């Protein structure tokens, strides 16, 4: 199907006109006029109760947004992704993270080859390794069991593992410690290992390319640290280092036995890889059964996305709502607010997923876009944010749509904490939507001069995602929900959500300057005057 430029799609024009009506309508009025609003704008699917009624929408809005999805070829693009078409056009690659969580008997073809058996072969190898480490059968060089696991990776090879470890800590093996080193700042490595015993420490070097500056620098420092602690015995490397990569020759060059390498494929993007072998640290922490349960949750959401009509399709609805505010209300950001301490790294994880995917300025055909693409995602766990930046969401001049994420059951029942936590979620979404008028403020006995300061306009939109309990499967569903919401938005904007040339740029720029900082003789500098002066100043003081 050929797709028109976004602004020429009929639904786009209709939405632009419809926005003129909607911008003046208050949620108070929309709720007042319709007793069944909450019921109508709620979807209960895949273990997620998704209430999107507190959005600035009507039936007409949803009809037009769904029409836009159709006119944008979303159906065809979903099929193309699952079919293994090379939808990552600028890198000429398939995008098959959905194959990472497909059941053993599924068939997903990549260049005519069924990749599902390959995926399960790696998962089985990971499970065997994880079981051996967790049981103590796998021993370090001096015969001690492994008690500490340090994942070294960055970007997609770090953010998913960190987030998943924190999110699923409740299910983790508590007799082991898990650390994550990503930054090339030596402090990250030094602090991660300062109290560890090398005899009991296993490093996982996670890097798709095995050439990333930060990761390779940290990996070499880890090797030096280990050898220093184990009397320089090179044979210790095999017991204390494993690799997750697509690049066997670089892994071997580093000195890791490729028998201890866990592979993945170029059709897995870094930010879509936490459920591949990149999740080895997660599997070591929570065990293979829990890891498979997480994959099961991902797969349930994949199937929901692939087969459910758009009007009840969670990722489609979430993606369309984000686009509605981004492109028509001019909202620049989306706040993600998990009311669950274990999800404290979830916003950071989502920042990469959403912004690296949809931070693009040209279409797949290379034409500059004349509409806004990826919004900025940010957030902190509740209730902490309420005591800081919520002020701006409630009373500032910007519109910030929010995703509130909460669980009905807590994993740590402590007194009345959980009821208090959840009361805050509901109270916040209510206050954001309905606000407080000057009359209401006056009626509380507020002096006139103070009234304007205490007025809340309301009409600030939010989604509420209510789930039963945080489990490995729930986490898988949540991550896949956002992955496919990002995809939905990217398809409508006609951008390549799967490349990251901005990241690649960062990988080469510093390489030019490193020798200029380190050279013994004064280097000839040909940067701009600012960069030249900064380099000289650093050289003088280092
Ligand atoms: C993710 C990006 C990027 C990547 C890192 C690490 O989608 O491509 O964040 O994951 O740059 O790359 P390596 O895994 O190759 O070290």
Q: Which structural traits does this protein have?
A:
542 residues; alpha/beta; six-stranded mixed beta sheet; five-stranded parallel beta sheet; 22 helices; 13 strands; 46% helix; binds glucose-6-phosphate
List the helices and strands and how they pair.
Layout: H1 10-22, H2 27-32, H3 37-40, E1 42-45, E2 48-51, H4 59-71, H5 74-83, E3 109-110, E4 113-114, H6 116-135, E5 148-152, H7 159-167, E6 177-181, H8 186-193, E7 201-206, H9 213-229, H10 237-240, E8 241-245, H11 248-254, E9 261-263, H12 280-286, H13 288-307, H14 314-327, E10 333-339, H15 346-358, E11 376-378, H16 390-395, E12 402-407, H17 417-434, H18 438-443, H19 451-454, E13 462-467, H20 472-493, H21 501-518, H22 529-541
Parallel strand pairs: 5-6, 5-7, 7-8, 8-9, 10-11, 10-12, 12-13
Antiparallel strand pairs: 1-2, 2-13, 3-4
Helix pairs in contact: 1-4, 6-12, 7-12, 7-15, 12-13, 13-20, 14-20, 15-20, 21-22
The structure holds glucose-6-phosphate.
Brief account:
By secondary structure, this protein is α/β, with parallel strands linked by helices. Helix content is 46%, strand content 11%. It is globular and about 75 Å long.
């Amino acid at each position: 199907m050929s797709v028109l430029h976004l602004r020429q799609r009929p639904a786009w024009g209709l939405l632009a006109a419809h926005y003129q009506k909607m911008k003046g309508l208050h949620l108070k009025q929309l709720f007042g006029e319709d007793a069944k609003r909450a019921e109508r704008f709620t979807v209960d699917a895949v273990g997620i109760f998704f209430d999107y009624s507190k959005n600035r929408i009507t039936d007409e809005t949803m009809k037009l947004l769904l029409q836009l999805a159709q006119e944008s070829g979303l159906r065809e693009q979903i099929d193309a992704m699952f079919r293994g078409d090379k939808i990552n056009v600028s890198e000429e690659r398939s995008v098959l993270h959905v194959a990472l969580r497909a059941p053993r008997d599924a068939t997903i073809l990549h260049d005519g080859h069924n990749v599902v058996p390959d995926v399960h072969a790696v998962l089985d190898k990971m499970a065997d390794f994880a079981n051996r480490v967790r049981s103590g059968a796998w021993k370090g060089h001096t015969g001690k069991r492994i008690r500490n696991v340090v994942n070294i990776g960055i970007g997609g090879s770090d953010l998913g593992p960190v987030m998943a470890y924190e999110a699923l800590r409740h299910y983790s093996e508590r007799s082991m410690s898990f650390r994550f080193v990503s930054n090339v700042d030596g402090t990250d490595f030094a602090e991660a290992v300062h109290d560890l015993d090398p005899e009991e420490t296993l490093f996982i070097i996670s890097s798709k390319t095995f050439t990333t500056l930060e990761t390779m620098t940290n990996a070499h420092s880890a090797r030096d640290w280990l050898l220093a602690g184990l009397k320089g015995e090179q044979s210790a490397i095999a017991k204390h280092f494993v690799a997750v990569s697509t690049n066997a020759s670089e892994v071997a060059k580093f000195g890791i036995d490729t028998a201890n390498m866990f592979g993945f494929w170029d059709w897995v993007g870094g930010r879509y890889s936490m459920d591949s072998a990149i999740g080895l640290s997660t599997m070591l922490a929570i065990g293979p059964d829990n890891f498979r349960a997480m994959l099961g949750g991902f797969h349930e959401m994949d199937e929901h996305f692939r087969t459910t009509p758009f009007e009840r399709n969670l990722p489609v609805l979430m993606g369309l709502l984000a686009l509605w505010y981004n492109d028509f209300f001019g909202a620049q950001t989306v706040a993600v607010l998990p009311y669950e301490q274990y999800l404290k790294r979830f916003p950071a994880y989502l920042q990469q997923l959403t912004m690296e995917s949809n931070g693009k300025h040209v279409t797949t055909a290379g034409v500059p876009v004349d509409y806004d693409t990826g919004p900025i995602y940010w957030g902190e766990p509740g209730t902490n944010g309420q005591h800081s930046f919520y002020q701006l969401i409630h009373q500032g001049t910007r519109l910030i749509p929010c995703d509130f994420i909460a669980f009905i059951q807590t994993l740590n029942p402590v007194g009345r904490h959980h009821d208090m936590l959840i009361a805050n979620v509901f109270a916040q979404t209510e206050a954001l939507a309905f606000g407080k008028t000057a009359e209401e403020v006056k009626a509380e006995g507020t002096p006139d001069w103070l009234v304007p300061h205490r007025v809340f306009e309301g009409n600030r939109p939010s989604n509420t995602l209510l789930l039963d309990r945080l489990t490995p499967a729930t986490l898988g569903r949540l991550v896949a929900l956002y992955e496919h919401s990002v995809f939905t938005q990217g398809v409508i904007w006609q951008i390549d959500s799967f490349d990251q040339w901005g990241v690649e740029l960062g990988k080469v720029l510093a390489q030019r300057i490193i020798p200029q900082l380190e050279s013994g003789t004064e280097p000839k500098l040909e940067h701009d005057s600012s960069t030249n002066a900064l380099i000289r100043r650093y050289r003088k003081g280092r």
